[in-house]
Amino acid sequence: MTALAEPHTDVANIPGMVAGLRATYRTGATRPLEWRRAQLKQMIRMLEENEAAFSDALRVDLGKPAVEGFITDIAFVIGEVELMLKNLKKWNKPQRVPSPIVTQPAKSRLLPEPLGVVLVIAPWNYPVQLLLVPAAGAIAAGNAVMMKPSEVSGATSALLARLVPQYMDSRAVGIVEGGVAETTALLDQHFDHIFYTGNGTVGRIVMTAAAKNLTPVTLELGGKSPVIIDESANVRVAARRIAWGKWLNAGQTCVAPDYVMVHNTVRSQFIDELGKAITSFYGDDPHASDSYGRIVTSRHFDRLRGLMSGGTPVIGGEAIADDRYIAPTVLENVDMSSQLMNEEIFGPLLPVIGIDSVDVAIEHINANPHPLALYVFAEKKSAVDHVLASTTAGGVTVNGTLMHLTSPHLPFGGIGESGMGAYHGKSGVRLFQHMKPVLARGTKLDVVGVPAIHRPQSQDLPQGSLTDEQLAVIIRRLMSNRHIMRMAFLASGCCDLHESCLGLQLLNVFSPDIAHS
Predict the structure, then answer these.
(1) For the chain, first and last CA: distance in Å?
(2) At what angle do helices 14-26 and 180-187 cross, to 10 degrees?
(3) Contact by Cβ (8 Å): 81, 43
(4) Is 143 left (phi over 0), alpha (psi -120 to 50) or beta?
(5) What pLDDT was estimated at residue 167?
(6) Which three-class secondary structure state does DSSP give residue 322?
(7) Which of 151, 263, 303, 425 would staple 231 via disulfide (CB 3.0–4.6 Å)?
(8) 323/288 Cα distance (integer angstroms)
């Protein structure tokens, strides 16, 4: 892997770039479904025609094996975008909703309306997926989009900066490269929505900047995603699925299992099975494996090596600085007050803590910020139900890891410290829309409102008019009958409420006993 110079966009050009996107949006160019469909198809074409280039960039940035990079970054995006294309018309249709009696005659609907110009700020760990999936949702919703890939994954950032203008409409889809200065310049601009994926420290900066313009934000953050293993769990299956979820991308996944709390009756067996799973996936020497990645930078490597002091490695523990390699590592004798257990690991270190009951794990989880993901392994349904009912997390996979985020039908996002807002599939389109409420009234029948507004004073009522008490009896009885209730607006909307009014004539037809009570 060869480190690249940090790419950047001239900060002086950023205000004009954003202004250009807004000018395009105001022309209405991004609203037609044909435009949205064309951009989404071009995104797929960009990935398919440049698959080898993306694979090489991901290898340079993260040492990603080709198959892993294809599945987690390229194919993932293509799958999401194809679903958006399939449902684009349906998801952007107006939605009919009921109209209350007091509004009749009327029809009500919700119109999906784009927000405007959206900023998407992506992280380095899945630099293609985590930039293009939210950007695709924003485009499918009818917005103009500014993309900001991570400067840490410099090879991928440079490739995206070169290809996006070639394949997509640069009038409405922009891309800015760079680090803190460029991101700060972007945050100084007015956007209609900001979508940020990363850590909580920068998330707070993004939210503070957005507050200046009252810009809504989506924060996809992280945290310590725990695993609970009940004594009833299938230990071999649990170990293999945890090993896969933990050491994918060398542990640099926001929903990777951060630590395991395993029942003491199966703890030793679990450690043994973890060792077997690591060998099965990566061979006797993971350093020589074509299936195992590397730490993204030397700074992150040093941080992870420092975290190792919080426990005793019982599997792995090897670290090679020149190659930014840290072996799949399992730690026991974990110091619960150490940094290992008090900051997100985001690397290939897996602390294992023995527990005497699931309640101990639940108590620990609830004493800490809500995690982005939670994983529970148990064959007993009662144990699973107990964990689900007693904890809060952004998402949960039962008897597996990571898989809940692969479903486009399940919104993906955090809660509290782990984020706000959710996307994927339809949720990823709706996130970037305003569902505009519209009520359209008919004019053939002039019904003007509720009696409290239009009823004249009692002393002004003509002879034969209903008293307040009589009107109250009618309304109460109407409310108890769904059929007659459809006619209630006629009576309640009359201005004078005397015996000749249309409402009471209709009531005489449909329910004379009520009309004359």
Answers:
(1) 89
(2) 40
(3) yes
(4) beta
(5) 98
(6) helix
(7) 263
(8) 11
pLDDT at 472: 65
User: Who contacts 58 (Cβ-Cβ below 8 Å, separation ≥6)?
Assistant: 64, 69, 73, 127, 128, 153, 155, 156
Residue 267 exposure: Cα atoms within 13 Å on the Cβ side: 18
* Catalytic (active site) residue 494: no
Asked if 497 and 452 count as a contact pair (C-beta separation under 8 A), the reply is no
Side-chain half-sphere exposure of 513, counting CA atoms within 13 A: 3
Find tokens 């090679």 and name the residue.
320
Q: Which of the residues 80, 151, 177, 220 is marked catalytic? A: 220
Catalytic site residue from 182, 231, 254, 494: 254
Which DSSP symbol is given to 7? Answer: P
Residue 333 bridge partners (DSSP): none
Q: What is the DSSP string of 214-246?
A: T--EEEE-----EEEE-TTS-HHHHHHHHHHHH
Measured distance CA(106)–CA(167) in Å, rounded: 45
- Please tell me the distance from the alpha carbon of residue 403 to that of residue 380, in angstroms, as a whole number: 20
Rounded to whole angstroms, the Cα distance separating 11 from 237 reads 51
CA distance 505 to 490: 10
Q: What digits encode the pLDDT tens for the residues 393-441?
A: 999 999 999 999 999 999 999 999 999 999 999 999 999 999 999 999 9
> Strand 433-441 and strand 106-114: pairing?
antiparallel
The whole model's pTM is what?
0.86
83-105 CB burial, b ≥16 within 10 A, e <16: bbbeebeebbeeeeeebebebbe
Cβ atoms of 46 and 139 closer than 8 Å: no
Cα 121 to Cα 145: distance, rounded to the nearest angstrom: 11
User: Alpha-carbon distance 112 to 435, whole Å?
Assistant: 5
Phi-psi region of 2 (alpha: psi -120 to 50; beta: other; left: phi over 0): beta
Q: Which two tokens stand for residue 160?
A: 């995206």
**254 among known catalytic residues:** yes
